[in-house]
Design brief:
The chain is α/β, with parallel strands linked by helices and about 180 residues long. It has helices at about 55-65, 65-70, 85-90, 110-115, 150-165, and strands at about 10-15, 25-30, 40-45, 75-80, 105, 125-130, 140-145.
Length: about 180
């Protein structure tokens, strides 16, 4: 599995960015991750569309979209389902209709495979979360088993810590003192 300190793999994938007719899809590439504007990226993966735990996580990331934006951080959601399945799910699920971030379609499973997050039997993605700095380097990885949803507040806490570029003690939260040596 790709880990901290490694460059996020190159990719070019279709994503659902809207439900407006004719504006549903956009291509997102790994070039999107690197920038001179000090913008970070959080990419989070879920196993399957039209399931039970996944929409709770996606909705929670969406609910906290402003928190990520306030931290100069882009959100990208992803699974190995197609862009058409993503669009259908968004259309038919109340909590997903108004998503503010793209749903990346890794239909070929090539990116999930490059990341090392494919579950070996069904070949679906684990619940993986990557925090990527503005140079395209992975700074944090968290992977949950298929049946346990992640904690979006913890993703924000770790992002806050990474963005301080200082030593953050256990249970540190934004606004608290960092360690000095």
């Amino acid at each position: 599995m790709i880990t901290i300190g490694q460059k996020f793999p190159s990719f070019s994938k279709t994503a659902v960015v809207s439900l407006e007719k004719g504006k549903e899809f956009e291509t997102i590439t790994s070039d999107f991750l690197t920038n001179d504007d000090n913008v970070w990226t959080v990419i989070f993966w879920w196993p399957k569309d039209f399931t039970f735990v996944c929409p709770t996580e996606i909705a929670e990331f969406n609910k906290n979209y402003g928190e990520f934006r306030d931290r100069d951080t882009r959100l990208i959601g992803a699974s190995t389902d197609s862009e058409f399945v993503h669009a259908a799910w968004r259309t038919h699920h109340d909590d997903l209709r108004d998503l503010k971030f793209p749903m990346l379609a890794d239909t070929s499973k090539s990116l999930a495979e490059d990341l090392g997050i494919l579950e070996p039997n069904e070949k679906i993605a684990y619940r993986a979360t990557f925090i990527i700095d503005p140079t395209g380097i992975v700074r944090w990885v968290s992977v949950n088993d298929l049946n346990v949803g992640r904690n979006v507040k913890e993703v924000l806490r770790v992002l806050d810590g990474l963005q301080t570029d200082e030593l953050c003690p256990c249970n540190w939260e934004k606004g608290q003192e960092t360690l000095t040596v």
